[in-house]
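Dear Dr. H.,

I hope your travels went smoothly. While you were away I took the liberty of generating a structure for the chain from your last submission, since the lab meeting agenda had it listed for discussion. I wanted you to have the full record in hand beforehand rather than looking at slides cold. The sequence, exactly as received, is reproduced here:
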Amino acid sequence: MAWLLEALLFLVPLLGYLAWRRMNPGVEPGARLVLAAAAGVVLALAGLFWFGLSRSLEGGVYVPPHMENGQLIPGHTERPQAPRP
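The corresponding predicted structure, in token form, is as follows:
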């Protein structure tokens, strides 16, 4: 059911634009609307960039998903072990 919500959230902006075009044939979007959409895209990209940096590995080592004794172990990060003298 979650995939339906994700698909709907993905399609809402497109459906809104298509509805606007259907109700206003031959009318181009104004400069303010184009600038607002561009600002929204820039803010979304900046948010994704910030989120990616805040969720970094923080010095850990990524261990990809693998099988152990017939069990699937999901990918995770591990702290590097200190070298033994």
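Two observations you may find useful: DSSP finds two helices and four strands in the chain. Helices lie at 2-23, 31-54.

With kind regards,
E. W.
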